[in-house]
Write a structure and sequence with these properties.
The protein is built from 12 helices and 18 strands. The protein is α+β, with helices and mostly antiparallel strands. The chain has 2 domains: 227 residues, Thiolase/Chalcone synthase (Peroxisomal Thiolase, Chain A, domain 1); 153 residues, Peroxisomal Thiolase, Chain A, domain 1 (3-Layer(aba) Sandwich). It binds 3-hydroxy-3-methylglutaryl-coenzyme A (HMG).
């Protein structure tokens, strides 16, 4: 039985900051950010958007009567969750009106959470071929103003429906994965910004890629020539290119050119969004699928990396007419309708936060075009609205 990605939804908040202007404000050469890091714009979430609302808005795009009836498992991959106990998925389950007899959980392993969810979803579908699983990947990446990591922040979500007989991509059975206890990036429970050893995290990302790629080839008997494209977890777009370069020589000149071209296409969305942690790899995949017509039957490789660290290389095969099931116009509109924030306004938005002392606050959602918004907090309970209901 084929199991894989049946639908993909995506959401980004309405604001962004231009990396040239951020470079100027931070006293670095713009080319360091646009070429050295490989980012053009960074998505900024207003106070009315959090990982729950971003995920719910991404999922809204792909829900129809059939999926509402069949989704019986919701897995929410995030590392910027809003509660130490209650799953962010439970809020989304309610906001979307999913069926009550569904299982809902949150998955955490840095940027790897959504990949773990997809692999578990495969098992669930294998046992329950009629079911559909909603996998949510949503994060707001925060390192702090004036930090080295600041230029690799971002905000956004991807929602995937995993099912039997998928219409977009059937996942291969073979994958290679690796766990190592390292401190390259982490966020203690008392901090709302991440701690990172930037250079070490880059080294580990590349080392993990090398190991899982080697193991994947051994397990599958496949080689670089079997891939139409390889998509990467992209904390910033330059790093995936560095990883790709480590294996390019395994292929002919034609294979190298094809993989480099398709890599570039897979980074176009990420360049305009920044790091969205768990969702980042799936944004790379979406960027490629939305912007290039590839042949059905083509194999796409996927490298997932979550600091701390877990890495995985897996793959999938594009299905016939897969582009008919993508929401390309909607994604284009999301990018075209964003508003640029000046650096000083971005800093103000970044510093805004909800009270933590139990007091109640309402936030104004009138300027937020998202259907699903955070409306405030009351006695430590976040309040949400779905404007469509
Ligand atoms: P930095 O010290 O600001 O930058 O840190 P740099 O000095 O390393 O320069 C970056 C690049 O810009 C270099 O290129 C420079 O040469 C180049 P490279 O040598 O790497 O090819 N450069 C220029 N290029 C053109 N024109 C110029 C110019 N000047 C310099 N004028 C760093 C950069 C990414 C380390 C920092 O932003 C950071 O710590 N970011 C956060 C950590 C991160 O993203 N790590 C990635 C791997 S870990 C991961 O992916 C997991 C993660 O997503 C978390 C999770 O799993 O949950 C982060």
């Amino acid at each position: 039985m084929k199991i894989g990605i049946d639908k993909i939804g995506f959401y980004i908040p309405q604001y962004y900051v231009d990396m040239n202007k951020l470079a100027e404000a931070r006293g670095v050469e713009p080319e360091k950010l646009t070429i050295g890091i490989g980012q053009e714009k960074m998505a900024i979430a207003p106070i009315t958007q959090d990982p729950v609302t971003l995920a719910a808005n991404a999922a809204l795009q792909i829900l129809d009567d059939e999926s509402l009836e069949k989704i019986d498992f919701v897995m929410f991959g995030t590392e910027s969750g809003i509660d130490q106990s209650k799953s962010a998925g439970v809020y989304v389950h309610q906001l979307l009106g999913l069926r009550p007899d569904a299982r809902t959980i949150e998955m955490k392993q840095a940027c790897y959470g959504a990949t773990a969810a997809i692999q578990l979803a495969k098992g669930h579908i294998a046992l329950n071929p009629e079911s559909k699983v909603l996998v949510l990947a949503s994060d707001i990446a925060r390192y702090g103003l004036h930090t080295a990591g600041e230029v690799t922040q971002g905000a956004g979500a991807v929602a995937l429906i995993i099912s039997a007989n998928p219409r977009i991509m059937a996942l291969d059975d073979i994958s290679a994965y690796l766990t190592k206890d390292i401190m390259d990036f982490w966020r203690p429970t008392y901090s709302d910004v991440a701690f990172v050893d930037g250079k070490f995290s880059n080294e580990q990302y590349l080392a993990f890629f090398g190991q899982v790629w080697k193991e994947y080839k051994e397990k599958s008997g496949l080689s670089i020539a079997d891939f139409e494209a390889i998509c990467y977890h992209l904390p910033y777009t330059k790093i995936g290119l560095k990883a790709l370069r480590t294996i390019l020589e395994e292929g002919s000149t034609d294979v190298q050119e094809k993989l480099k071209d398709n890599y570039h296409i897979s980074t176009l969305y990420g360049r305009k969004v920044g790091n969205i942690y768990t969702a980042s790899l799936y944004l790379s995949l979406l960027s490629l699928l939305d912007q290039k017509e590839l042949e059905a039957g083509a194999r796409i490789g996927l490298f997932s990396y979550g600091s701390g660290a877990v890495g995985e290389f897996f793959s999938g095969i594009l299905q016939s007419n897969y582009r008919d099931f993508l929401k390309i116009d909607h994604h284009t509109n999301l990018f075209n309708n964003r508003t640029e924030l000046s650096v000083s306004k971005y800093e103000m938005v970044f510093e805004e936060s909800l009270p933590t002392d139990g007091s109640s606050v309402d936030v104004d959602t009138t300027n937020d075009p998202a259907p699903i918004c955070l409306t405030g907090i009351n006695e430590h309970m976040r309040q949400y609205t779905n404007k469509n209901k």
